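thought: fold this chain, then report.
action: predict
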Amino acid sequence: MAIGLFEGEDAPSGAPEQVGELLSSGEARASFKSLGLTHAEGKRWLTVGLGTREDFTAERARVAAAVARERARELATKVLCWQAPDTQQDVVAALVEGTGLADYSFDSHKSSPKGIQTGSPHEGGQAGKQGSDAKPKHLDGLIVTGDGDLAAVVGDAQIVSDAVSEARDLQNRPANDLTPTALAEHARKLGEEIQHLSVEVEGRDGLLARKMGAFAAVAQGSDQEPALITMRYEPGGRGSDPSGPLLGFVGKAVTFDSGGISLKPGAKMAEMKFDMSGGAAVISALAAIARIGLPVRIVAVVGATENLPSGRSVKPGDIVTAANGKTIEVNNTDAEGRLVLADCLCHAISLGAEQVVDLATLTGAVIIALGSTYAGLISNDDVFAAKVTDAGEQTGEIVWRLPLHEEYDELVKGKYGDLDNAPEGRKAGTITGATFLSNFVGDTPWVHLDIAGSAWDLGRAYAPKGAAGYGVRLLVQLARSYRA
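observation:
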């Protein structure tokens, strides 16, 4: 049993007297993330400090749940029951998400030493034999108790939590396993399994037929077939008839980014398997939205490719033509994400998307500016930007808006073509990346999220290291905000 304690308040109703004794002795404290343990009524009672009630938020509930899950892991807990500190829907959902995300691990490519349980409920693997001294790696169950009927809130939160874990699985897979074709196959399977979700995949020939010269240029250096993944969600659940705009989700999915001819330094290049994180978030979020049955129409476009050096690779100084006819000087082949996104944005808008949000691990500059706490947001529309920002606030996937200004347009102008993909001077790197992309959305309301600092090694209790699945919860909440 996990129960939350607020500063200045007694133990919640239903707690045994031993919890009050822990509080009186100081062994249990209500300061945020403090933990205490006692036995009563044939159960173990884990007290979790929540801080002051006025400072308590859904994000704090998410962190508290993750902290509780870690302690429960140490205690070899199989079933954890949370007594919700209040029954606000966002808090109840956060308890589910924080527990589920903290329960995550990725062991698909590890051998199974005797006596160690392997496999994850999120990976579709089977648990191995477990020795008598081994602790369970994952919970068998989570129960949330509180006033009222919490079933729908808990059920939807579980779908979202599982979607984040699915995105993390995709991110964590090595590039020789998660190729563009493998990512496309994952999307295809989702389309076969989930009602009202359809998926279409096109390869290299499709890019050329669509005159996606920017995307195709990035893909030409690799032997792996690129994948233009187009997903459509037309709701039919919960008796809804959506009348809002057709949303567009666009994700960058460079499954490995060596930098191409403009080769990256070797240090930490292995992390460039995470350069597909935006695409993973888009695919997993749309699957969750479809499973929940939210009443909003969405078209999602994910551009999947490797960026490798070879005799066929695009070269610094080459000029390519994007789907909207704009020519681009490729002066740095390591600024490839904006080339992929340029054509994917054009494609989403050509399919009728009326409001578009893209997610991409686009620039290292955003890490310098914002670290891992905020993702960078740049937009051409104040109303849509506010809507995305609010979705981030509600999910803990917070964003910070950076400006667009006409003076930045001068920085991305090309000398020999219309645009330069890598302006000299390293000024305003995150902003110039987004300014470049703005040339491919026209007047369509658009938000660009640079998640390079948030996609992995987030450093939060529920996602401390490795893939974070950042953006899944934000996109689901954004879709929820269109509910009538």
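thought: worth noting. The mean pLDDT is 93.
final: tokens above.
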